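Appendix C. Worked example: Heterokaryon incompatibility domain-containing protein
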Amino acid sequence: MPYGNFDSLASQELPRSHRIVLVLGPLGELLSRRQECSFCGLVVSAISQAWKQHSPTPVIQGTPVKCTMYNRVVGVVRDDESGIEYHENFERNKYQYSNCRIVIECKPSPPGCPSQVEIQAVDTGAAIKGLFDDAGLFTKRPQECMDKVNFALLKTWLSHCETSHAARCSPDAIPHANPDKYLKYFRCIDVTKKKVVDSADDRYVALSYVWGTAPFLRLLQSNRSELYKDGALDARNNDVPKTVQDAMRVAGQLGLRYLWVDALCIVQDDLNEKAEVIGAMDLIYSRATLTIVAASGSNANSGLPGLDSGSRDLGPYHFKNRFPESVYEFSVARSRPSDLLGSSTWSTRGWTYQERLCSHRLLIFTEQQVLYLCGVSSWCEDTVLETNDPRVNYEEQPLYGLNLPNDETLSFMREVEKAQSVTPFQEYVKMVNEYSKRDLTYPGDIIDAFAGGLARFQRNCEAKNIQLNFIFGLPTTWFELSLLWRHVDGSHAERRSQKWRHPSGVEIAFPSWSWMGWIGGVDIRAIEQVLRVEIDWHYIEPGTGALLRVASTPSTQPPPFWVQTSDAPRVLGEKWKPKGAHSAIEPADLDPYRSVDLAGKLACYTSSCFLPLAKHKYRREFHVGKESHVLDLDPEWAEQRVGESFEFIVFGRHMGNDWEDPGKRDTLYVMLIERRDLVAYRIGVGQVAESEWVDANPTWQLVVLG
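Step 2, the predicted output written as structure tokens:
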């Protein structure tokens, strides 16, 4: 083995385009040499850890595993004048690249196991060098102190962030909001006196964790006076979940006296208080000095790894080797922070999504190490990432533009507030697409677990003079666009059976027309510039029964360079939407529905007709009319109903993109519905050619959608 190549692989001077690839040979040969070859032993240790096998399998389904290795860029230092523009022509990129990790690639790899593992250069002096001096940047810290959390390092991170990143990482002022509206119910745990207290202190820590299903101590009306006494949480120590106990220890070690934990800071059996605080969850997390994230384990008793000896996954990471003629030591690299978070239960839970969304500093406890994320930097115990040099960018840093993989675990809402190239609706789409894929222990929490995120988004929009409200998670300003959600990858569609308690006290079923009414991930693929509003929607307010008009903003206009030369939209439109057609709804119009509970339902006058359902010749796709107009339907449901006719209603126009004659190829956005007891329910959505719709002899009628 040519050991001298290792120093080249870990060099900070190679251009990014210069990848050194070395063929290591079959894994079986590395296994046979691991006793006498220290490098082979290191590679085998790395593969064993990644595959979770004591001795990695050298043959996969009859094919020998072959190993190669190469250098990987983990960061760059750019010239002051080059900005962050990235060029495919490497010679134009005036960067210094750092290659402090070595990738071992194994092909093939066992199912469900990574094909790549990494070895990292160790800076033996990093433990004694000062932070933020760029000494040993991107190298691995000595592992002797990794058994327990290095609180001195954590305190340095927070102190540096508060001092140097104040403009970026301190909570922004929230416009058009009363930040004190929740203080009537705001309380914290005093980690010094071990009790619950009413608090208006600006410096507190919030906890983001997974509850799980096991019972544990919660604040109730019956035990409130007890938990307000000095030492109350010590006295009930066996009932306080391990994660909360550990978070109290962390807050104390960081010099922060107050800790906010939902289970002990909200009276869980006071429905009015819960509703008030849940609506202000964005303020609670965005105003916290720091959010502690319990990203390890699957319940409130999992604890925070690293506070006690033996609670961390140390694996083979403490093993290191110095090879002949090499100035570096090398060790098995820990998982990347983004990978650690991506595989955590915390990253799959619904409630934790908005907690991540609204926090401006995250201290994340994983099985292997602690991570720190803020609006400027990303640091970890394992690797030297601390730098004051604004020219330095690295892969886990929350910055964009260098064509390096970046971690997106910090609050992207901060980017939303400042973004120029991304529209607010696109940010809403991103939120829904991500949140809907997450799990909820209680499916009925789908609204409450997203209330804080939507509230923050609403305030951001109001700061841009965009006024909106939400109806079951759909923004009124882009209501028709938001109806274009689809089930992810044609997955089985399952309705949410639970009911939601409206602030008025009325319990109502989740509607079929909202993505919140269904279990599973959704994807909104709407394009703002091509949808035109055609229908006047009305929402029937629970509690009062008032008819509220859903006013979409007429922002969905053709691009400015379009010049409509065809009269087809007007001519065809008048055949399915007659001139002077009734569109506004009066209370008397709903008299025929008196036998139906209308709370939380939509009503509109629209065009309706029946069309036969067809299937694509070669793909498992379903449509009406032209095959290019695919419907979003549950494939299992649709497969059994091909050839049958179903009722569709119009809810918008898709403006065509015939460059020679804009408007000629317009289609109609339609919803396939099923009626039960006078009420229509959404089955799916799609498009139909307007000419085909007119040929089907549609009728104009009142529709109530549940």
